[in-house]
Amino acid sequence: MSTTIHSSRRRSRRLGVLLLAGASLTTTSAALAQGTDGAIEEIVVTAQKREQNLQDVPIVVTVASAQLLQDTGVRDIKDLTVLTPGLMVVSTANETQSTALIRGVGTAGGNIGLESSVGTVIDGVYRPRVGVALSDLGDMERIEVLKGPQGTLFGKNTSAGVINVVTARPSFDPGAKAELTIGNYGEVGGSLSIEGPIIADKVAGSLVVVSRKRDGFYDVAPGKGPRTQDDDSNRNFYSLRGQLVFEPGNGFDARLIGDFTRRDESCCVGVQRVNGATAPIVQALAGAGGGVLSPPDPYRRLAFANRDTTQKIRDGGVSLEMNQDLDALGGAQLTSITAYRDWRWITGSDSDYTNADIIYRGDNGDTQNRFRQFSQELRIGGSAGIVDYTVGAFYAHEKLDSRVAQLYGADFPQFLALLFSGGTNPNFLAPILSLATAGTGSRDVYAQKDDTFALFTNNSVRFTDALELTVGLRYTTDRKSAVSSFNATDGGRLCNAGQGTGSAAIIGALCNPFFNSNFIGVVSRQKRSEEALSGTAKLSYRFSPELLGYASYSRGYKSGGFNLDRVAYPYVAPSQPNAALSLKPVLDTSFPGEFVDSYEVGAKSTLLDRRLYLNATAFYQKFTDYQLNAFNGFFFNVFPVPEVTSKGVDVDMLYRPSKQLTVQGGLTIADTRYPKSTASLLALTPSTARLPGQRLNLAPLYSGSASVTYEHPVAEGLLVRANASVKYNSEYNAGSDLSPLKRQAAHAVVNARLSLASEDARWAVELWAANLTDTQYVQTAYDAPFQAGSVDAFLGAPRTFGVTLRASY
C-alpha cells in the first residue's frame, strides 16, 4: 500500500497560512464588558459560589467570555488551553483518556482508576473525569479557570484547580441562532439553537443541536489489515442540549438541563518518534507498504495500524438547580443542585501502534468504560451584617464499570521468534510461541463504587471597608470499593510454557502482566475509606479603589483509590531471594489520597481610568503523596510520591486602550519538581529512576498566552472584527519517565479569526485558522509496547482553517 495516502489533504494544509496572513497576536482571559467611554466594566465571576467582581476575588482566575470563546474557536475544554497560561490538556490512546494540568500538576495517562487533579464543573455539576467533559458545550456564557486548590467550595479532586463552565440560560425574549462551518480535512459542522418564552414571564426554554464531521488528522497505512480505514483522529458526532427555566415568583427559580452526545469516531493512533532495535522486525512483518519510517518522521503524520481504533461514546445527563430566597434569613438564598449522568465509551485499539498484527484490543465491546453518577448539593448563602456566608452539604454516588481485553494478533508468535533470535529465525521456539492463538488473550472486568459526602462552609468577614478575611472549611468522607476479575481465553498456555525455558528475557515477555497465567481466575476485592479536611484562609486589603492586595493559604485534596490495571511482581529466578514473589499478582493496588498545601501572595490593580487590569500572584504549593501514574510499555503503575513542589508566579493583564482595541495576556512561571532525594521515591524502577530533582512531565517552566482583538465599522451597519491569539509553552518532557528521547522543544500555537458582521449581530462571515503556523509538537510520548528502545508519540493538532457563517434572530 502506498504511504502517500491523502496527499491532496496534505496539499490543502499548506494553503492554510494564506487565509489570515494579515492577522497577528493572541489571547487569554476575560469576560469583557465595555462602557460607553471604552473603559472596562465589571467582570463577574462565581469562583466563590456567588457573583463577584473579578478584581474583588482573592483567587487567581482566568475568565473567557462568550465573545472571546467565539473569537478563538473554543468549543470544548481541550480548546481552552489557547486562552489560559499554565493550563494544558492532553490526550493519549483515546480522547476520553484526557488530562488537564494547571501549573504543571495533573493526572496523566490512561488509568481509569485515578481521578482528576483539575476538577471540571459544568453548570454547578462536577464531572468525574476530564474526558467526560470533552464535548461541544453549545452556547456558553463564560468559562472560569481557577488556579490552585479549590477544595473548600468545589470539593475533592480539585487539588490543582477547577475549570468552571457556565452555559447560557434561556432568555424570555424569543430568538434563534444558526452556525455553519466548513474547513479543511473535509470539516463540515453546524449548530442551531432556539430560545424563548413558553409561559409568559414564568417559563422559558432553549434547545441547542450540534453536529460536526471531519476527516482524520493522520494518514494510516493498515498493512495486512483487517483495518481498512486509512485515516484517524476524525470527528463524527452530534449533541443535543435542552433547558427550561422557571420563574414563578415569590423568590423561587429553577433551571432544568438535559443533554445527550453521540460520537462514532476513530482515535487515536501513535506515530514513531524513535526506532529501536525491533524496527527491522516490524518492517519484515508489516508486508506491502512497510511498517516503519526510517528515519522516523512523526510530523509526516503517517501512522501504522492494522487494527481499528474505534471511539464510540454515549453521554447523557440531567440536572436540576432550584433557588429559593429566604426572607426570614435576611435575603439569604437556598440552592439545590441535583444531577445524574450516564457516560459510556467503547474502544478498539492497535496496542502495538504498528501495522504488524502483534497485540490489539477488539472494537466489539470487550473493552469499554461506563460511569454512572448521581450527585446532590444543598447550600445556603447570604449576608449577616459584616459577614457573607455559605454553608452546605454534598453527596455523590459513582459507579464505574470497566472491561479490558488485550489479545494476541496473528503476527505475535513470529514477532517474538524474530525478537528472541536476534531477527534471524522466524521459527525460533515455534512449539511454544504457536500456543499464542490469534484473538485469545486476557479479559478483565473491573467494578468500582464510590460514595462521597461532604460538609462545607466559606465565610468572608469585612472588618472595615478595606480589610476582609475569608475562612473556609470542608470535611469529606470518601468510601470506595473495587472488584477486579482477571481471566484469559488462552488458558495461560504461553506463559506456562515460557517459564519452562528458564530464560528471564523470554519469561518476562511471555508472562508480562497482560498474559501472566497467575492472574487466571483471580478475583480481587478491595475497600478503602478516607476522611479529609480541606479549607482556606484569605486576608485581603483594599489599599485604594484601584488596588487590592491579598495573602492566602489553601489545603486541597484528591481522593485515593485503586489502580484498575494488572500489576505483578517481576520475574525472579528460582535460585534468587524473593523467588516466591516471581510473577505473583499484586492484588493490593490501593493508593492514598493526595493533599496539597498552597500559599499565595497577590495583587489586583485597576489602572488608567479602568482601561487596564493588571493582576499578579506568587505561589508555593507542596503536594503530599502525589499520585504518579507511570507507563512502562505494558501497563500503568501508580506511585505515591511523598512530596512534589510547585512554585512560581501568575500574571494576567487586560488592556483596552480604545473602544475598538483590546489586548489581553498572561504568563505562568511554574517550577514543579520531584524531590531531590532518591530515597523519598519509594519505588524506583526504570520508569521512575530519572525523576529525583527533575521537573514533572508536561510541566513547562514558562507558559504564556496573549490576544489582540480589534473591531471597527467599515460602512453603515457593518463591522470588521479581527482576533489573533497565541499560546506559548517552554520546553517540557512529554514522557512520565522523563527520558531525554521524549523532550518537547519550546513552541507557540497561533489562532486567528477575521469576521465581517452586521452591527446588530444578525449575521456574520468569519475566516479562521487554528494553529495558523502549523506548529508541530508532541502532546505525550511513551515507550512503544513490546518494542524496547522505540518511542511513539501522540501529536498536537495540525493547522486547520475554514469559514464560518452565522445568523441570528
Q: How many domain modules?
A: 1
Which CATH C-level class is it? Mainly Beta
Task: Give the terminus-to-terminus CA distance.
Answer: 51 Å
Tell me the name of the CATH homologous superfamily. TonB-dependent receptor, beta-barrel domain
Shape: globular
Q: Helix amount, in percent? A: under 10%
Proportion in β-strands: over 45%
User: How much is the average pLDDT?
Assistant: 90
Q: What is the chains' assembly state?
A: single chain
Describe this structure in words.
By secondary structure, the chain is mostly beta strands. The protein has a 22-stranded antiparallel beta barrel. It starts with 6 loop residues before the first helix and ends with a strand.
List keywords for this structure.
Maltoporin, Chain A; globular; mainly beta; 809 residues; 7% helix; disordered N terminus; 8 helices; five-stranded mixed sheet
Record the SSE blueprint.
Blueprint: H1 7-14, E1 44-45, E2 52-53, E3 61-65, H2 66-72, E4 87-91, E5 98-102, E6 105-106, E7 118-122, E8 125-127, E9 140-147, H3 151-154, E10 161-167, E11 175-183, E12 187-199, E13 203-214, E14 218-221, E15 231-232, E16 235-249, E17 252-266, E18 271-274, H4 279-286, E19 302-304, E20 310-326, E21 332-347, E22 359-360, E23 368-384, E24 387-408, H5 412-420, H6 430-433, E25 441-462, E26 467-485, H7 493-499, H8 504-510, E27 523-544, E28 547-558, E29 561-562, E30 590-591, E31 594-607, E32 612-631, E33 636-655, E34 661-673, E35 702-715, E36 718-729, E37 732-733, E38 743-744, E39 747-758, E40 763-770, E41 778-783, E42 791-795, E43 800-808
Parallel strand pairs: 7-10, 14-19
Antiparallel strand pairs: 1-2, 3-9, 4-5, 5-6, 7-8, 9-10, 11-12, 11-43, 12-13, 13-16, 14-15, 16-17, 17-20, 18-42, 20-21, 21-23, 22-24, 23-24, 24-25, 25-26, 26-27, 27-28, 28-31, 29-30, 31-32, 32-33, 33-34, 34-35, 35-36, 36-39, 37-38, 39-40, 40-43, 41-42
